[in-house]
Write a structure and sequence with these properties.
By secondary structure, this protein is an alpha+beta fold. Helix content is 39%, strand content 23%. It has five helices and five strands. A hairpin with a 3-residue loop joins strand 2 and strand 3.
Length: 188
C-alpha cells in the first residue's frame, strides 16, 4: 500500500504498548493496522493516534491476513473541536460505527471517505442537529446502495440503514438522537 489519507475510526489496545487501529482511507477503504510501540512516550507515533484524526499514513502490507503494519503517519487535522463536546464525540462515534459496519475491508469508496471527512469537519465546528445526522445517514445510504446495487426498501431512513447493515444498526443511534433532542431542549 502506498501513502493515503485516512480517518482513524477505531483504536484497540494490543499488549502493553501497541495499538490495533482501524482506518477509513481514501484509496483503500477500511484498513486495519498495528502500531507497535505507539503507547511508548518516545515512540514517533505517541500522541498521534487518537480517534477521528485525519492523517496521511503509510502502511506495509501484511503477507498473511489483513492486519498491516503502520509505518508512518502525519496528522493533517486532529479535529480538536470534536473533543470539546460529549455530543460531538458521540455523533462522531456513531458515524464511525456506520462506516465500520457498512463497508467491506479494503474496498475503496472515496466519495464516502469525503463525506466522512466533511462530517468530522462539521462536527469539529458545530454542535450536531437531528438534521445533520439524518443528512449523513441519507448520503451514507445512497452511496452504499449505489455501490451494492441494492434498491431501497422504502424511504424510512432507519429501515434503509437496517437493510443495508444486515439488521445491525449501531446501538448508539437511539442515544445519539435522544441526546441531540435533549441538547436542543436545554439550549434553545
Amino acid at each position: 500500500m502506498d501513502q493515503t489519507q485516512a480517518l482513524l475510526i477505531r483504536r484497540t489496545r494490543f499488549g502493553d504498548t501497541s495499538l490495533i487501529l482501524t482506518w477509513f482511507t481514501e484509496r483503500y477503504g477500511l484498513v486495519k493496522t498495528i502500531a507497535k510501540g505507539a503507547l511508548r512516550p518516545k515512540s514517533p507515533l505517541f500522541g498521534k493516534v487518537d480517534l477521528f484524526f485525519q492523517c496521511d499514513i503509510t502502511v506495509t502490507v501484511a503477507k498473511k491476513g489483513d492486519l498491516h503494519a503502520l509505518r508512518e503517519l502525519h496528522v493533517i487535522a486532529p479535529f480538536e473541536g470534536i473533543r470539546t463536546s460529549y455530543l460531538r464525540a458521540l455523533v462522531s462515534s456513531y458515524f464511525s460505527e456506520l462506516l465500520a459496519q457498512g463497508i467491506e475491508f479494503e474496498h475503496p469508496m472515496p466519495e464516502l471517505f469525503h463525506l466522512a471527512l466533511r462530517a468530522f469537519g462539521y462536527l469539529n465546528e458545530t454542535e450536531p442537529t437531528i438534521r445533520s445526522v439524518h443528512y449523513f445517514e441519507e448520503q451514507f445510504c445512497k452511496m452504499i446502495e449505489l455501490e451494492t446495487g441494492q434498491i431501497p426498501v422504502n424511504n424510512i431512513l432507519h429501515r434503509r440503514l437496517s437493510a443495508l447493515l444486515g439488521g445491525r444498526i449501531p446501538d448508539n443511534r437511539g442515544v445519539v438522537l435522544a441526546k441531540i433532542e435533549e441538547n436542543i431542549k436545554n439550549n434553545p
